[in-house]
Amino acid sequence: MAGCCGGHSHFDGMSEKYKRILWYVIAINGVMFFVEMIAGIGAQSQALQADALDFLGDTLTYGISLWAIGKSLQLRSNVALFKGYSLLLMALWVFGSTLYRFFFLNMPDATTMGAIALLAFAANVISVLLLMRYKDGDANVRSVWLCSRNDAIGNLVVLVAASGVWYTDSAVPDLLVAFVLASLFLSSAIQIIKQAKLEKSQQQTVSSTDNH
Ligand SMILES: [Zn+2]
Predict the structure, then answer these.
(1) What separation in Å is there between the alpha carbon of 105 and the centre of ligand 1?
(2) Given phi > 0 = left and psi -120 to 50 = alpha, else beta, which region is 70?
(3) Angle of helix 139-168 relative to helix 172-211, nearest 10 degrees?
């Protein structure tokens, strides 16, 4: 969700209160990765496992963002590039493992899926509320808020998958939702990589004009 910042605010996360809140959000994401991954493997749900990977990605991303606050622009665009490539790997992994499941069908446990999706939804809503006051910050600050908000929507999609599995008594809704999540990872990965490469090339132009 890039390109939605009006440039009306220049808050770049340099505040102790914001950093503390970011720590809470990182902890929530880290715990939810383990909970949802273990439940996802136990319930044989591709959608839960994909959603769990999102929590892992966010834990790492927010952790790196916290570390990058106040660092140089160059470093921050390298961090963004790393973020983009990790997301790309995650997308490929979910696509691959879900495709495999189409040929070796499993039967996900709809009850576990539903319960964990609700828990994940609660976790993301809490993160959104914690970050609410900072949603108009710079691109980095804003992306953390947007990501938690999008993830809460994603959790509801997993909940729909759980109902679909329960209703159709088949794994297909689970696999379809896993594909949807993988496509979202892929499109964010491409966006982030493009943006980071653009920023890097702009910095190179700036530094080369500085040298002359
Ligand atoms: Zn996320």
Answers:
(1) 27
(2) left
(3) 170
Give residue-wise pLDDT tens across range 73-98.
Answer: 788 788 888 888 988 999 999 999 99
For the chain, the structural domain boundaries read 16-191
**186: its two tokens:** 């892929």
Q: How far apart are CA 103 and CA 17, in angstroms?
A: 49
CA 9 – ligand 1 centroid, Å: 23
Q: Which residue has the tokens 């999706």?
A: 117
| Predicted confidence (pLDDT) per residue in 26-71, tens digit | 999 999 999 999 999 999 999 999 999 999 988 988 888 788 777 7
CB of 94 within 8 A of CB of 178?
yes
> How remote is the CA of residue 148 from the centroid of ligand 1, in Å?
6
Tens-place pLDDT, residues 105-116: 789 999 999 999
pTM over 0.85: no
Pair of tokens at residue 77: 């665009």
